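Milestone 3.1: sequence recovery, worked example.
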């Protein structure tokens, strides 16, 4: 049930309009999201100029301090879960931006938006459901929390914005039955292990 909800959530938030052979894989999307240039804004010097380089900031992240062996095992389990859930959260965040742009510039009235969402459901199911089927319950719960981290809104708030309060209430009830909570919020202090793993992931030191 939780996997069915997560597929629906991606369907609600996903805004990519590439279909069939034009669609791209999750792996290629994640690589694109994480790709960053080390040196930017290079300026060739003139006769009265000096070489100028803008370097991207580099975070020096120290090792996580474990209280005991049990703490280390918990970290390892979380790292495995983040490997599965975080790429999907990145995709939701990226494509949510596209959906907002489309709503503002292309699908400007309610009828257009309703038709767009309806037509898109089949594509999202075909593209993402196989990946969602591999998530276990804990990874599904983590994904809900990471969506809040990456978008600034809970899945409940997002569904309410795009599908209305009744649909948000309905899916919240189904999520509770499946052991999830659409109002799951991410706090970097309360989720220090997860935050440490993600920061290693983004810096390229993990996963």
């Amino acid at each position: 049930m939780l996997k069915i909800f997560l597929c629906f959530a991606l369907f609600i938030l996903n805004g990519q309009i590439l279909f069939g052979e034009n669609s791209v894989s999750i792996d290629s999307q994640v690589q694109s999201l994480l790709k960053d240039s080390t040196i930017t804004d290079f300026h060739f010097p003139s006769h009265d100029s000096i070489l100028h380089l803008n370097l991207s900031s580099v975070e020096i992240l120290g090792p996580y301090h474990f209280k005991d062996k049990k703490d280390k095992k918990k970290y390892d389990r979380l790292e495995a879960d983040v490997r599965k859930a975080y790429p999907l959260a990145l995709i939701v965040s990226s494509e949510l931006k596209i959906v907002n742009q489309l709503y503002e510039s292309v699908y400007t009235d309610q009828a257009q938006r309703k038709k767009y969402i309806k037509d898109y459901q089949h594509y999202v199911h075909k593209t993402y459901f196989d990946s969602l089927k591999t998530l276990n319950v804990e990874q599904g719960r983590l994904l809900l929390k990471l969506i809040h981290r990456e978008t600034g809104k809970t899945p409940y708030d997002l569904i309410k914005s795009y599908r209305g309060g009744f649909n948000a209430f309905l899916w919240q009830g189904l999520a509770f039955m499946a052991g999830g909570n659409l109002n799951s919020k991410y706090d970097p202090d309360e989720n220090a292990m997860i935050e440490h793993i993600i920061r290693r992931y983004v810096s390229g030191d993990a996963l």
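The chain has one domain: 2-15+69-203. The chain is about 65% helix and 5% strand.
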